[in-house]
User: What shape does this take?
Amino acid sequence: MSVAFAGNSTMSPSREAGPLRVMIVDDSVVIRGLISRWIGAEHDMEVAASLRTGLDAVNQLERINPDVAVLDIEMPELDGISALPQLLAKKRDLVVIMASTLTRRNAEVSFKALSLGAADYIPKPESTRETSAADIFHHDLIQKIRHLGARLRRKPAVASPPLAPASPAAPIARAPAVVRPIAPAPAVHAPSSGSLSTRPFSTQAPKVLLIGSSTGGPQALMTLVTELGPVIDRFPVLITQHMPPTFTTILAEHLARSSRRPAAEAVDGEPVKPGRIYLAPGGKHMRVVRSGAEAAIALDDGPAVNFCKPAVDPLFTSAIDIWHGNILSVILTGMGSDGMRGGKDIVAAGGSVIAQDEASSVVWGMPGAAANAGICAAILPLNQIGAKVNRLFAGDRS
Assistant: This one.
């Protein structure tokens, strides 16, 4: 997620070439060893240091000079949330990824860390003995390090608005020894978002707003929903954010506070009504189905789509059966291409897609995929999307 920097850097900027230098900070020797092996198997990153406490990280930062830090939340001497601002004060361009287990308290701390300048968060599995959980953790961590590190080297990070608090992480059981390198995402040398062509907005009036987001999404969503009151009051708003269980519970609470409108994780079978925000719960795909004369939420526990669960494409595609071409969809910052195929379907049905632009995105994967597919009616900075959405729902078709 985007990095909000504070303080003056006392260190040299991150290197422009060579492998990304990763500092691992976790009081679990098992987790430190596991992550070290994963990173060691990748050609474009290396372990700069493996440390037990936040105090070690703060004291040794100048000597280590990492590009990325994977920072545990609960540690002795100095926990992650206390170490975070001290690390960023010493090195303002440091990419910090917070790591925590899936407890409500840790989810709240992770959200607080985003407001303090953490670039992103990653949930740790309760036990690395569970192969599927360890595989997901492995895949997501390596991709976050790679994409956030690449963005750091490409251009200055963009400051982001805040979220909210919490703490601790549970002990993690013994780790498997198998290390499988994760192939880097293919380099995409796409034109900048400002030079991409767009298509006209639909002539059909939108009756629902669909939003998809991933890395950087919570902060982007928080900014966007503060401006969408007139739309939320009159139309249903459905959001899929790539996020695990518990974290989506906290995100829904933040969305409710930011929008000053009802917002909650969607419940299977509930009717879709104007005046509220429906958020896909972590670990479930959210679709919409017809229930009598109205639309209703349908949650399913099927396999991941685009390596994600929840995924954006199932929401986008399912909405066409209900609202046909009367759909406005927004694709915000995130890794991968989720939302692009569903967006194509929406456009083919007569609806419209808006993508966040590259400069304001933490990772221009999802919106970039939509933009490069030629399906967008607009590619806008985050701070212009809300006003445009309001105008479209008020009758503007330009």
Summary: The longest helix spans residues 131-154.
